[in-house]
Inverse folding.
């Protein structure tokens, strides 16, 4: 991972700048690159955006696995939650983790979030954890070092990601018990379910 940052620094570049280059004016909430980054072989996907207005955070990467890359037998939690608005069948997509980045294009931390934040299909933590091994962006668009770095991050910080995903499910379950008449996955008061800073 450090080699990816090192080679970019040698050229006066950084991980975030690589996904923003050639994309025009930077707007909050817009995905960068504009078409997202998708690996057609692994079905891993990511994008970068900003919207939280933090003094420390510039923005964050959202990492996903699309249906075709999920382990056989992966099933969304449709028996527990109202899934009427979720992406379905071949369009199903699972959010793996988000990576908070600072203004210098360096990582600040990892976080998990509620379903409405990414518009994902909701899978249990155990099922999302089973998808982590498949996350790989094995091409050079928009940046070979950034793609390699994100791929390595999922492996290197897997224990932290697993912890955040299991904690996510506990938080959602607690909120559902607290507000039994609400669809907790769509509750705008619950956005980030857990955050861990990176060293």
């Amino acid at each position: 991972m450090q080699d990816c940052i090192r080679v970019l620094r040698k050229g006066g570049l950084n991980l975030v700048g690589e996904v923003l280059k050639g994309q025009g004016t930077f707007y909050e909430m817009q995905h960068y690159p504009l078409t997202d980054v998708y690996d057609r072989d692994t079905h891993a996907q990511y994008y970068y955006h900003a919207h939280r207005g933090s003094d420390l955070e510039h923005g964050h990467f959202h990492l996903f696995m699309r249906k075709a890359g999920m382990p056989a037998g992966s099933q969304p939690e449709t028996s527990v939650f109202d899934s009427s608005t979720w992406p379905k069948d071949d369009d199903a997509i699972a959010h793996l983790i988000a990576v908070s980045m600072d203004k210098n294009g360096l990582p600040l931390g990892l976080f998990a979030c509620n379903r409405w934040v990414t518009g994902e299909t909701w899978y249990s933590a155990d099922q999302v954890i089973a998808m982590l091994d498949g996350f790989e962006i094995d091409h050079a668009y928009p940046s070979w070092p950034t793609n390699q770095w994100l791929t390595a991050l999922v492996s290197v910080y897997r224990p932290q990601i697993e912890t955040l995903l299991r904690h996510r499910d506990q938080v959602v379950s607690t909120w559902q018990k607290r507000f039994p008449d609400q669809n907790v996955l769509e509750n705008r008061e619950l956005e980030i379910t857990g955050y861990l800073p990176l060293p």
